[in-house]
Structures are given as structure tokens and as C-alpha cells.
Amino acid sequence: MFVIQICMNWQSVSFDWNQAKAFLATAEEGSLSAAARALGLTQPTLGRQVTALEEELGVALFERVGRSLSLTQSGIELLDHVRTMGDAAGLVSLTASGHSQSIEGQVCITATDAMSSYHLPHVLGQLQEKAPEIEIEILASNTVQDLRRREADIAIRHVRPGQPDLITRLVRTTTAHFYASTAYLDRHGRPAGPHDLSDAKFIGFENPGRTIAFLNTFGLALTRSNVKLVTNSGVAGWEMVKQGLGIGVITKDLAAITAGIEIILPDLVSIDVPIWLTTHRELHTSRRIRLVFDVLAEALS
Prior knowledge:
22% strand; 301 residues; two-stranded antiparallel sheet; Arc Repressor Mutant, subunit A; disordered N terminus; 41% helix; alpha/beta
């Protein structure tokens, strides 16, 4: 039996991962400022790392287009290789975290801004009592974070992730309906049917065109004149509803803990809203992450 041993020339490896990470973040975020925020660095520090990588490789990786950066052909060719390195680094971190059996350390939970603001604080109190040494970071975001890249340890989502290496649990399904403040309804009247909403004011979410199209699936005939206030924040949208600025679509859970709010036409609009709890398969072997996962599952159910 012959054994062939291949020895790596370590002296020839001079690639700096910090520089590569700076390049990868800049390519994915689209600007130095956004990449610096994502990595927790100052923009000058990040810029020096990218410049150092360009000098090390002897190629230009970015060209400036207005206020943003665009990859050069050399940058495009390098990106896939560095992204593979990023995925590998993430797996190393996942494995290390997964084998940690200490009920202490940091756990990052990502959820919508509304869930983070109105529902999670109560759960965090329970976590502090059960495991005071665990540090919880809440990433309040309405965009889906990539658990495989360690953007978060646990995610609370309203759609089931499709990646096979994630563990998901459907903790509950709630419903969403039309709600408005009592003050708004006192001014504009309480609708008895869809025809009474033709002049109503609605709070839009992110895209007014999509909001109108969605609302009209319930038999309404709304136009842009019905949606004059739009936000990408669930918290801001709910505050607008509470202040009597319009009608919003919100879960009955949030409405139940808010004073001065009334449901509108509950037989007309009832939307199923699943609550999925998700973590990475490797992380599920960590005692601290398993504890947080189980506490969340119990509390949210």
C-alpha cells in the first residue's frame, strides 16, 4: 500500500482573511459605508483593508459608480472564491458554537421589528431568570437573515425556511385582520361592509402598489388615494394606526395588547400568520442556544 503525502507550502500562503472579509462585505453590501457598518469597523479602516488586498493581488477589485462601488472583472472572478471562504469560516464558527456546552455567552435572535418590540421583551425576562449568564442580542429586521452565515443564531419568521440544514418548528399560527383606532372610527364611521371602505385611509407597507393589490384581493376597490402613508417598519405602521392615521393589517396578538384599537370586518379579512422558530442544525447542539430556542418555543406558543 502506497501513501502519498502532499505537503503544503505554508510560506507561500500570504492571504489575509481580514482583507478578504472586507472585500466580501463591500461586494455584498455595495458600498464601503454599508460594509463598515456590517463588520463593525470604521469606513477608513475597511477602505485600507480593501486597498491592501488590491495591492497584494496587484489588481483593481472595484470601480466607483456614482456613490456606490461596482466590481471589476478581476473582482467578479475573485468573489466566488472569497464567498466560499466566507461560507467555510461560517461553518467553523458554527461547529465551535455547536460544541459549546456552557450555558453562558451570546445568542443572537432575529425577528421582525414588531415582534422584537412588542412580544420578545416578555420572553427575555424569562430567559434572564433561567440563564442569567446568557447575553441576548436582538436583531430587529424585516429582512430574512442568513443563519448559515451566522447573521443570527435563532430566527423567528412568518415563512418556513427551505434550506435543508436548518431546524424549524412551527410554534403557532395566529391571524391578522383589519384594525383601526377608536378615534379614527369615531371620525370616519364603522364600516359595515367592503363598500364602506372606498374612502378609507390605509397604512401601506414598503410598496403602496403591492399593498393596494393585496388589499383588493379581499373584494375592495382601493386606489393610490387610499394609501398615502407607507413605511417599511411594522412598529412605525402600528403607531400610525394607534394615532388614528389609518387602517392597518396586524395580528390579533398585537391588537390584544393595545388599548384603543378595534377590529374591522373580521369576517372579511382573516389572514393566517404562522410563527416559525428556526436555528442551524449545528447550533441546536449548543446548550445555551437550545435553552433559548426552547424558551422561545414555549413562550410564543
